[in-house]
Amino acid sequence: MPAESSEGAPHQGTGASYAEAGVDIEAGDRAVDLMKEWVRKAQRPESVGSLGGFAGLFDASVLKRYERPLLASATDGVGTKVAIAQKMDIHDTIGHDLVAMVVDDLVVCGAEPLFMTDYICVGKVVPERVSQIVKGIAEGCVLAGCALVGGETAEHPGLLAPDEYDVAGAGTGVVEADRLLGADRIRTGDAVIAMASSGLHSNGYSLVRHVLFDRAGWALDRNVPEFGRTLGEELLEPTKIYSLDCLALNRTTEVHAFSHITGGGLASNLARVIPDGLHARVDRTTWAPGPVFDVVGTAGDVARAELEKTLNMGVGMIAVVPPQSVEAALSTLTDRGVDAWVAGEIDERGEGAEAVTLTGDYAR
């Protein structure tokens, strides 16, 4: 019903409006129109309906092929990496990072990612910029083999500056109950296979920004010989999406567990899948971290322990496999273009020992 004045007549005021408060509904509608092209490319046969509904739809009859399907759910963001995208005015890669952070958590338990939704919060809706963010999300979903079934773009003037935004996403996957991966499958003698990261991925950027910008005073357009490109280009390198590689590995050979190496570094994330009584010994001499890790450490005089508990140090995913599966696992990953190697093994844990120990010095 229309608002009424104190005299009872419909209120005909010409004062405050939503647009005056900073929310542009027309710009939001334009953003939706621009992103439709990208969302259409990130579909699966089970996707139902079209962009613009109140809820994303996915045909759950796909679950009929499972004996006992377990749904897996994960949600994440990309942290302060968005600040780099905003400063560089490049917005079509950050969505790729978002998808990676979600789907690679799902696949750790053996789940196939089915679909994702996103949430984009902006200070001011710039349709072309929002469309570029969604483009990255859609392209990431294609690489992950999942559908983008919907999302939300919210304009928060006053809370965020006009050029500021943040992104988050949630994903759902499915795994057969008797194929669920995790700590209970790991045994003494299992091999720890490391998969190379594409760089910093989407963790530790508060430390990286503090070191390189606040302490070293570097600019994003600085050419860094160690990178063979600018600092900004290196920092925006998208997070590697491992989901289809991990699913392929799980189909072709026996896998006991995966560990997605994100915030907290290799040791703390691998420890999450190591059962009581067992211990993972990881040998640093089996790989050389990419130059970005050495640059951050040197520029900020950051201790190795601090780097290792903050950054992935060149390893983005771990697979724990029985010894008889090592050759097949490495062959599968190599065939898929994934740089992988045996980085350690599982043995008995001594009393009072940590779940994960890193030994040796990194290769050069």
UniProtKB/TrEMBL annotation:
GO terms for biological process: 'de novo' IMP biosynthetic process; adenine biosynthetic process. Residues 188-352 form the PurM-like C-terminal domain. It catalyses: 2-formamido-N(1)-(5-O-phospho-beta-D-ribosyl)acetamidine + ATP = 5-amino-1-(5-phospho-beta-D-ribosyl)imidazole + ADP + phosphate + H(+). It is found in: Cytoplasm. Residues 1-20 are annotated as: Disordered. GO terms for cellular component: cytosol. This is Phosphoribosylformylglycinamidine cyclo-ligase. The lineage of its organism: Bacteria, Bacillati, Actinomycetota, Actinomycetes, Kitasatosporales.
